Amino acid sequence: MSQPQIDFAPLIRARFTDDGIQGLRLVSVEQRHTTLSVVFEGRSDTRSGRFGVRIRTPRHIGDERWRQFVASDDPEEWVSMIIPLEIVEPYETTALQAHALPDAEGVIWLTD
Q1: CB 16, CB 43: distance < 8 Å
Q2: Which tens digits make up the pLDDT trace of 47-73?
Q3: Rounded distance, CA 74 to CA 13, Å?
Q4: Which of 3, 28, 32, 75 has a beta carbon 3.0–4.6 Å from 60's, enabling a disulfide?
Q5: What are the phi and psi torsion angles at 2 (to 5°)?
Q6: Distance CA 51, CA 28 (A)
Q7: Measured between alpha carbons, how far is 17 from 34 in angstroms, rounded to an integer?
């Protein structure tokens, strides 16, 4: 019997406080199948504006994508590893160099 796919959107949403994470404020998060789209406001000291990342999620606990980040079976632990590596780091390393124009919703996508 296969495991149900985890909806990571509420777990990401719960990690962002009113002050954001490292100054990044969550605008929206949505999961479709195994892609999590996270849109956030950038920091004024780095580059302000709306930015987004698309994160490939595991199909189930324990699959290859899961084990890239954690050894446990805890979805919250997986999310705690994803935020710095797949959200904060792409913003900090590519936002200043990003030459992409915002999409129709005003989001500059840092990942495909």
Answers
A1: no
A2: 889 999 999 999 999 999 999 999 999
A3: 16
A4: 3
A5: -80, 150
A6: 11
A7: 24
* Pairing of the two strands 50-56 and 107-109: parallel
Where on the phi/psi map is residue 23: left (φ > 0), alpha (ψ -120 to 50), or beta? left
Residue 7 contacts by C-beta under 8 Å, 6 or more apart in sequence?
Answer: 31
Per-residue model confidence as pLDDT tens digits over 4-17: 689 999 999 999 98
One DSSP character per residue, 32-97 reads: ETTEEEEEEEPPTTT--SEEEEEEEPPSSTTSHHHHTT-SSS-HHHHHHHHIIIIIIHHHHHHTTT
**Whose structure tokens read 């479709």?**
32
